[in-house]
Amino acid sequence: MRISLLSIGLIAALSTIGMSARAFEVEEYHRFGNGESRTLRILSTTDTALLTPMIETFLQGNPGVAIEYTSASSAELMTAVMREKHPFDLALSSAMDLQIKLANDGYTQVHHSNAVDLIPTWGNWRNHVFAFSQEPASVVVSPSAFDDLEIPRSRQELISLLRKHPDRFRGRLGTYDVGVSGLGYLFATQDARTSESYWRLMEIMGSLTPKLYCCSSDMIEAVARGEIAVAYNVLGSYARARKDLASRIEIIEPSDYTNMMLRTAVILNTAQEPALAGDFIDHLVDAAWNSPIVVEYPFHRYPTTGSAQNVPFRPIQLGPGLLVFLDNLKRKRFLTEWRSTVQQH
Amino acid sequence: MSDALPTSGSLRRRLTLQLVGSAAILATLLFFVVLAFARDVAQQTHDSILLASATSIMDSVSVQADEVTVDIPYAALSMLGNVSDDRVFYRVAMRGQILTGYDDLPNTSQSTRSGQSAFDTLSYKGNSIRMVTLSRRLSLNGAPADILTTVAQTREGQATQLAQLSRSALQLGLGFFLVATILAIWAAQSSIRPLNQLTAAVSRRGPKDLRPVKRPVPSEMIPLVLSLNQFIARLRVSLTRSEDFIAEAAHRVRTPLATVRTQAEITLRRVDKPENRASLREMIRAIDESSRAAGQLLDHAMVTFRIDSLERKAIDLTELANDLVDRLQPIAELKDIDLSFTGYACPPITGDAILVQNAVRNILDNAIKYSPNDTTIQVSTRQTLSTVLIHVEDEAGGFADMDTDALTHRFTRGENAVGTVGSGLGLTIAREVVEAHGGTLIIETSKSGTGACVSLCFPLA
Q1: Which partner from A58, A135, A341, B364 sits 20 to 30 angstroms from B255, CA to CA?
Q2: Averaged pLDDT, B393-413
Q3: Given CB atoms, is A193 within the 8 Å cutoff of chain B?
């Protein structure tokens, strides 16, 4: 299959520093289990430690199986799959748009099972892309930086707080550098699509010289250290996972709306063990959507029903709409506008 | 009777098959028409969404700082996602150069002028896709620039939808066929019904019923019924003619026979030679037989004639039987036969007294004729639940095990009739009379086993 010029362009645009033309950049490699007969090769953007308990329970249920778990950034994942065609079975990623891109451009296989029927319809795209977590785009604040001030619960409250006390927060705000982080770009574009208040917030944050970060964990640590008072659009699941910092940070899920990122799994066309990959997806999906809740599932479980209309959680829609923001002209335009708003100095 | 007739197939089956056949053709036609229609509608819906998507992308094309830029709206692609979970491809090109999108998307085979759209069904990356291409002319640096916007979507969702529609169309077609089949069977049945009714009406008739068919029939059957009636009329005329002929012949024969008999008796008195007397007696016997036969033929003709227009008056059977017994007593006494009558009071029956009398007299004549000397004949009348009957029992030896039904046929005689003058018409006349009155004639061996027992049963009025 020909590789589209567009895809190459995208990967070039999304990839971070020092991308080799030959091989994608591996962050971590781990082999689980000592089974010899079958090996499941997983390429993932999720930290190994987070998914280890899930992998171990899977191996208990499937003796004779080994799992090779390779973690990489979402851009490197795309390089590995689309350009270099490494024979991975399964791709797990938080970059919903890129997973949709893989499925839309025909790099994935269909998978049917009883387990995937548990997923809400918005969490399953054509039985190719399966969501196995809901993770909020949260605001993480340092309570010590507020002392006498009320901690904001919504974007409007944050905007008015920043307007009232600009000097107190100057240089003490943080958010993703959307040009570097795929997840930051996803959150930013969804924010821009959802509400006008996003641009007002960026305008006022831009005027207060914000610090830009590559990753959620860096932002969380910066808040905990007291370097910054407010971090906007942080992956809430990572903040929750840092129980060691619980006393020094507060996680806010904005009450006007909270975008929910869905971590998704796809079976790749290059899979040598598609059935095993399907079983692993069922294992993840079952933990994510079935009851009772299992202890080894590493993410917080949010309600899935649309019954509670006032609940601010908005799962980002899986579908071709996500391809729009991957369009290189669209992306160039958005980044230009974002930079001119946020990087005013 | 009709078993032997060769058939040229069944009308009802032919009608049913033709109706069911046309229903099958119509149902198939319906299936394909509905399917084609549904396919058209589905295609049009899909096309209009593709066009809306392409239009919204085209609307986002603008010239900024002497450069063409595209700002694809989120809705342009998400609207396609709302219709089905199909894969989506797009491309924006200017003067043959790709501005953004999938560069390997095939080009439309149609030429598009500015403001026009073209739809194609093509294959891309091994999938069937539906593609719309929209064209618009922009002015760039004072020169015209043609922009082509292409949006394509795979057709799996459409295929699924069509499969569902085909199933529904198939169910519709089958349902139509089923209902039409039931209606066809019903229609065939009901159009054949008048024919069956006519058949039943004609078959129900008695053997002597030669009246024309008068019941109303569908107009298509009128010629058949007319022919049938003409045929019946011809048959009746021909029957009447032959009966008349027989009666006339019998009448003409009987009178000269009487003269011949008288002359023979006179001659018998004159001759002395024993052999001459013997042959004369033989001659008289033959003359008696012929004259009796002629009499019975006349009787029979009279019975047939009267049955055709049966008189209906009250008759007292006991009185009638008593009269006859009285009248025949002298003949019975000649043979020392004890002719006795036991009559119970019976309700009157309706009918033709002359005919009934004739019938009873024929039975009694037979009994006296075939009974040996010094025997008894018992005549009685009585009433049962639904009939009034006259019972004649003799000691003439009975009919052994001969078929009693055959005895009532014309010119059939019992085994003991050899040596006795008779024509074999007596029981026939009796049976025809009884049956014309709606009754039955029963012939059986008497309880003592020494004779026959004949019952004329008439229905109660």
Answers
A1: B364
A2: 68
A3: yes
